[in-house]
Write a structure and sequence with these properties.
The protein is α/β, with parallel strands linked by helices. The chain folds into two domains: 171 residues, Up-down Bundle (Four Helix Bundle (Hemerythrin (Met), subunit A)); 162 residues, Maf protein. Helix content is 61%, strand content 9%. It contains 14 helices and five strands. It has a five-stranded mixed sheet with strand order 2-1-3-4-5, sandwiched between helices. Strand 4 and strand 5 form a beta hairpin. The termini are far apart. About 6% of the residues have low confidence.
Length: 364
C-alpha cells in the first residue's frame, strides 16, 4: 500500500475514536476531538497531492478517497445531531448532496469518465470542516455559538451550490446523446467499433458527423502531445475530414506555429482559457478547417511551477459559431489526465458538430 492510500485509510480508521471523543465526558475532550478532526481533515489534501506528484494514483485511491471524505464528515455530524449541537436537517442536506453526486460519479464511471473535482466542491469541503470544528468547540466555548451557526449556514449554501455546479458541469453525462454509449450508437454501421475496438466511440461518432456534414477538423495540442489527433485518425476514413494538427508543447511553438500572442502567454500562462482559445483559433486559421480544438493543461505528475494544480486543463473549440473554452480538473495520473483531456475534446467537438448540423449555427 502506498503512502497516499495509507493517508486516506487513516481517515476511516480515525472515525471511531473521533466519535468517542465527541461523546466522551472528560476534561478537554471536545478540544482534543476538534484537533483530531482538523488534523485528519488535512490528509484529504495531502493524499491527492502526494499521489499526483509521485505518479501513484490508483483505482483503490480513487474509490477510497471520496468514500473516506464523506464518511469522515457525516459520521461526526451524526454524533453532533445526537448531542443536539446541530439540526438534523443539516445532515440530511449534506447527505443528500453527497448521495446525488456519488450516483452521478457512478453513471460517469460506467461511461469511462472520471468526474474531476470542481473549485466549488473544494470550497464546500473547507466550509464543512470549519463548520464541524466550530460545532465541536461551541460546547466548551459558548461564545462560538454564533460563528458556528454562520459557518453551518455557509456550509449548507456551498453544499447545495456545489451540487448544482456538478450537475450543470456534467449534465452531458445524464443527457441522451452525451454518453460514450450514445456516441457508439451514432458510429457508422459499417465497421463500427465494438467493445474490443481500440477506437474511442466518440471519435467514431465525431467522424460520422463531420463526414456526413462535409465538415473539416484540425487540432492544436499541448499536454496531450498528439493523443487527440491519434484518437481521431484511429478512425478509418478520417482523411476525409481531418486536415491536420499542431503539437505546440513549448510557449515558443505556440507563438510561432499557432500565432498565440506573447502578451497572452505572459499575462495568463500557457495553461489558461485565453491561450486554449488562441490555440484553437490558430489551428482553425492555419488549416482552414470548420472546427478546431485547442488543448492545454498540466498532466502531471509535477506542476508547472505556478500555483495551478496538476490536472488543470483547458479545452477550447473554435467553430463558425465562435470560440469557447471549458475548464477541467482531472484527478488522475499523467496518462489518465491526458486521455481524459483528449476524450473531453472529442465530446465538445461532437456537441459543436451537432449544433451546426441542427442548424443552430451557420457554417462559414
Amino acid at each position: 500500500m502506498n503512502l497516499p492510500n495509507a493517508l486516506t485509510i487513516s481517515r476511516l480508521v480515525a472515525i471511531p475514536p473521533l466519535m468517542f471523543l465527541v461523546l466522551a465526558r472528560f476534561d478537554y475532550h471536545d478540544q482534543i476531538a476538534a484537533a483530531v478532526f482538523v488534523v485528519f481533515s488535512l490528509t484529504d489534501t495531502m493524499d491527492g497531492q502526494l499521489a499526483r506528484r509521485r505518479g501513484s494514483v490508483s483505482d483503490l485511491g480513487k474509490f477510497l478517497d471520496p468514500l473516506a471524505d464523506k464518511l469522515f464528515v457525516l459520521s461526526v455530524l451524526i454524533v453532533l445531531v445526537q448531542e443536539e449541537l446541530v439540526a438534523a436537517w443539516v445532515v440530511v442536506v449534506i447527505f443528500s448532496r453527497e448521495l446525488l453526486i456519488t450516483l452521478l460519479r457512478t453513471v460517469a464511471a460506467s461511461q469511462g469518465r472520471v468526474l474531476a473535482a470542481a473549485p466549488l466542491g473544494k470550497t464546500k469541503t473547507v466550509t464543512q470542516v470549519v463548520a464541524v470544528t466550530l460545532l465541536i468547540l461551541q460546547r466548551p466555548y459558548p461564545e462560538l455559538g454564533l460563528p458556528a451557526a454562520l459557518a453551518v449556514g455557509f456550509a449548507v449554501v456551498f453544499t447545495l451550490s456545489s451540487g448544482v455546479d456538478y450537475l450543470w458541469r456534467w449534465r452531458h453525462v445524464l443527457l441522451p446523446g452525451g454518453t460514450a454509449a450514445s456516441a457508439a450508437a451514432a458510429a457508422p454501421s459499417g465497421g463500427a467499433p465494438g467493445a474490443e475496438s481500440p477506437i474511442d466511440p466518440r471519435a467514431a461518432a465525431l467522424g460520422k458527423l463531420l463526414e456526413d456534414g462535409r465538415l473539416t477538423l484540425s487540432v492544436a495540442e499541448s499536454c496531450t502531445g498528439g493523443l487527440l489527433a491519434a484518437m481521431i485518425t484511429d478512425q478509418p476514413g478520417s482523411s476525409a475530414y481531418f486536415l491536420g494538427g499542431v503539437v505546440a508543447y513549448s510557449d515558443e511553438a505556440k507563438r510561432t506555429q499557432l500565432g498565440v500572442p506573447s502578451d497572452l502567454l505572459e499575462r495568463h500562462g500557457a495553461v489558461s482559457e485565453p491561450v486554449a482559445v488562441a490555440m484553437a483559433e490558430g489551428a482553425r486559421a492555419r488549416f482552414g478547417s470548420t472546427f478546431a480544438a485547442g488543448v492545454t493543461g498540466i498532466a502531471g505528475p509535477d506542476s508547472d511551477g505556478s500555483s495551478k494544480p496538476v490536472g488543470l486543463t483547458y479545452v477550447a473549440v473554435a467553430s463558425p459559431a465562435g470560440s469557447r473554452a471549458h475548464q477541467f480538473n482531472f484527478p488522475g495520473d499523467r496518462w489518465t489526465n491526458r486521455r481524459q483531456a483528449a476524450g473531453e475534446a472529442l465530446q465538445l467537438l461532437i456537441t459543436a458538430a451537432r449544433e451546426l448540423a441542427s442548424g443552430q449555427v451557420k457554417s462559414a
